[in-house]
Specification:
This protein has helices spanning 35-42, 59-71, 99-130, 139-164, 195-222, 227-244, 252-261, 266-275, 277-284, 288-320; strands at 5-6, 10-14, 19-24, 29-34, 75-76, 80-84, 87-93, 168-177, 180-188. By secondary structure, it is an alpha+beta fold. It starts with a strand and ends with a helix.
Length: 323
């Protein structure tokens, strides 16, 4: 991205001959822009010089429109989506949702649904038959390489499954959040009408990690000289999958259970349950569903407290590798 770019999560809708409405899909905010500046904004793709987009506008007029867009936070100047102390989000890919990409995403997601369990079971069974443990010198490569590949494949699973079910996919990138590295995908699944589709989108990351773990185990049987690093990569991806199904706010497991229970922000519900007797009585009166919501909410609250401890243990394990 060499030039300013309009935020890729904006949707433009013509209101009249003179105005357009801009909807920010991430913040759910709306803005009204004049037709001229809206037309100019849609052409800002990060690759075109804004001063040569339309010869009718002088440099001063272009500067005025750019400043107006920046005042509303509708413009970005580089691949850094967000930057704060200990946190940075960096855009790697802004997919153009073409027909070919949606077809590929459909095949990818379907293959993921069909293969993730069989490939993992086959890989685990074959590995247990042979136990190839060669390549101990590449232990760290398998550990960190497996984690990096697993995190990226996790987000690709969300993205392609989202495209399959009609979600709006805005971008994919890498991040450091609160000093912890990772990856992210920005998508809007509110347009996905079926609960099955929304659950599939949330579950796709976990399926991707399990599938990749199975592939690593199969490769270890084919390449026994790299058995140890491939085993470590497989174990790390299984751990990634397990961590993501834990009922912690923001992780896939919580999103999936929220869809099934029809409850939004289960962590907030759990906090309310702990401190409100009236809320507990109300849930208990709903029968089995109420009991399930109350149980999950309390588990989420407990795990929210346990998460810092888990992160600390992981950091100590990483440090111990270099001591």
């Amino acid at each position: 991205m060499h030039y300013p770019m309009i935020n890729n999560w904006l949707v433009f809708k013509r209101l009249s001959e003179y105005e357009e409405k801009v909807n920010d899909c991430l913040c759910d905010d709306e803005y009204i822009l004049g037709w001229d500046i809206a037309c100019f904004a849609r052409k800002l793709n990060g690759k075109r010089n804004p001063y040569t987009i339309d010869s009718r506008y002088s440099r001063t007029e272009v500067d005025h429109m750019l400043n107006a867009l920046r005042e509303h936070d509708l413009l970005r100047d580089n691949n850094v989506l967000m930057k704060e102390f200990g946190t940075i989000f960096y855009t790697l890919w802004i997919p153009k949702c073409s027909r070919n990409l949606r077809i590929f995403a459909g095949f990818y997601s379907l293959a993921l649904d069909l293969l993730w369990i069989p490939i993992f079971c086959l890989g685990a069974w074959l590995y247990c038959q042979n136990f190839p443990l060669g390549g101990e010198d590449f232990y760290l490569l398998g550990s960190f390489g497996g984690l990096i590949a697993g995190v990226l494949l996790h987000e690709l699973g969300h993205m392609f499954t989202g495209l399959r079910y009609g979600a709006r996919v805005f971008e994919m990138g890498v991040m450091i959040q609160h000093f912890m590295p990772g990856a992210y995908v920005l998508l809007e699944s509110d347009k996905v009408k079926s609960k099955k589709g929304r659950v599939a989108i949330n579950a796709a990351g976990v399926k991707s990690n399990v599938l990749f773990a199975g592939i690593c185990l199969l490769l270890a049987c084919v390449l026994p000289g790299l058995g140890m690093p491939l085993l470590v990569a497989a174990i790390n991806n299984v751990l990634l999958a397990l961590i993501n199904v834990i009922f912690i706010a923001g992780l896939d497991g919580t999103s999936i259970i929220e869809e099934y229970l029809g409850v939004h922000n289960i962590a907030k519900v759990g906090k309310t349950i702990l401190f409100s007797r009236k809320r507990r009585r109300s849930l208990l009166s709903k029968g089995l569903t109420g009991y399930a919501i109350m149980a999950v909410g309390m588990v989420v609250q407990f795990l929210q407290l346990a998460l810092p401890l888990l992160i600390g243990i992981n950091l100590l394990e990483v440090i111990s590798c270099f001591v």
